[in-house]
């Protein structure tokens, strides 16, 4: 398939306009995999194509529809009103459907509640403003209206929404407080993973040591940016992998449950403009759960 560019535009945006039947994320993956050529050369997603350039790719395969069947899964709703809700996502529940996911997701559970959900973004993730990894527990905000979704997404993007976590990492954390400022990009050897990469997007995670445990060190983390797998990648990169992390921890630390919990969320209500905050303690099976206090995250 050959497409001729008629205006100056980012490569991923050009393809999403030219091929609206395919999702932008799917087309971006094709670009990242080097399967899209611009005047015969592979380019980055952000490459600026110019009028007259020729974009060449094979016809993308049709994507099977995502399963949006409502699923009766108990949810702990921390807060709810007419425009948004905050849920304490349990372990093992993905945020939204995916082609590789066989079991129901948070979206399926919300649909079973007959919750009104925003339609901004891709159809398979209604209401989902930001996500947590499947095995990560904790707080997520969900939008009910499109206006609320746009406002909340802007807060996430502009970093005015605060997201803070508890984690248990392997080894001894020497410093009481420190910051990891290291760019993150998709791993060049394994496209399912992320990695610290000097050519990646800037990523900043602030760390606070809470207490030493027999199994490792109990810490608090505050995100300044929100890259995929950011906390997991950053801690692994500084030799402090999260216990139970089957992707980024060394084999001897992968056993057991992932010790990462999104315990604190602070944002501006999209209607009242009031600053509001929420806290959820980790599950009882979280190592060092007795040391997980709201003020640790609130004052971080």
Describe what this molecule looks like in 3D.
Strands 7, 8, 9, 10, 11, 14, 15, 16 and 17 form a 9-stranded mixed beta sheet that branches. With 300 residues, this protein is an alpha+beta fold. It has helices at residues 11-18, 24-32, 106-112, 146-158, 230-237, 294-298; strands at residues 2-4, 9-10, 36-38, 41-42, 48-49, 54-57, 76-80, 84-89, 137-143, 162-169, 177-181, 184-186, 194-196, 204-212, 217-223, 260-268, 275-279. β16 (260-268) and β17 form a beta hairpin. α1 (11-18) crosses α2 (24-32). The chain has 3 domains: 2-57, Structural Genomics Hypothetical 15.5 Kd Protein In mrcA-pckA Intergenic Region, Chain A (Roll); 68-158, Pseudouridine synthase, CATH 3.30.2350.10; 159-300, Pseudouridine synthase (2-Layer Sandwich), CATH 3.30.2350. It is built from 6 helices and 17 strands. It is globular.
Quick synopsis:
The chain has 300 residues and is α+β, with helices and mostly antiparallel strands. The chain has six helices and 17 strands.
Spell out the blueprint of helices and strands:
Elements lengths: L1 E3 L4 E2 H8 L5 H9 L3 E3 L2 E2 L5 E2 L4 E4 L18 E5 L3 E6 L16 H7 L24 E7 L2 H13 L3 E8 L7 E5 L2 E3 L7 E3 L7 E9 L4 E7 L6 H8 L22 E9 L6 E5 L14 H5 L2
């Amino acid at each position: 398939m050959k497409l001729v560019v008629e205006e100056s535009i980012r490569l991923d945006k050009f393809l999403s306009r030219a091929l609206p039947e395919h999702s932008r994320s799917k087309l971006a993956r094709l670009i990242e995999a080097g399967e899209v050529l611009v005047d015969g050369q592979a380019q980055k997603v952000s490459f600026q194509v110019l009028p007259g350039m020729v974009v060449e790719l094979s016809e993308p395969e049709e994507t099977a529809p995502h399963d949006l069947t409502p699923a009766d899964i108990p949810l702990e709703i921390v807060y709810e009103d007419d425009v948004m809700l905050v849920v304490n996502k349990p372990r093992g529940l993905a945020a939204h459907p995916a082609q590789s996911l066989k079991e129901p997701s948070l979206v399926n559970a919300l649909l079973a509640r007959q919750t009104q959900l925003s339609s901004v973004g891709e159809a398979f993730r209604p209401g989902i403003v930001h996500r947590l990894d499947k095995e990560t527990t904790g707080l997520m905000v969900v939008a009910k209206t499109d206006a609320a979704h746009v406002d909340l997404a802007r807060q996430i993007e502009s970093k005015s929404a605060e997201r803070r976590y508890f984690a248990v990492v392997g080894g001894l954390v020497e410093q009481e407080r420190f910051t990891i400022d290291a760019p993150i990009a998709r791993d060049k050897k394994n496209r399912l993973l992320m990695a610290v990469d000097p050519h990646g997007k800037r990523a900043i995670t602030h760390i606070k040591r809470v207490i030493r445990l027999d199994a490792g060190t109990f810490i608090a983390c505050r995100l300044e940016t929100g890259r995929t797998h950011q906390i997991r990648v950053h801690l692994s990169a500084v030799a402090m992998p999260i216990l139970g992390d089957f992707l980024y921890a060394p084999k001897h630390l992968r056993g057991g449950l992932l010790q990462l919990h999104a315990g604190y969320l602070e944002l501006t209500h999209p209607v009242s403009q009031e600053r509001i905050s929420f806290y959820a303690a980790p599950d009882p099976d979280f190592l060092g759960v007795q040391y997980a206090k709201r003020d640790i995250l609130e004052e971080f």
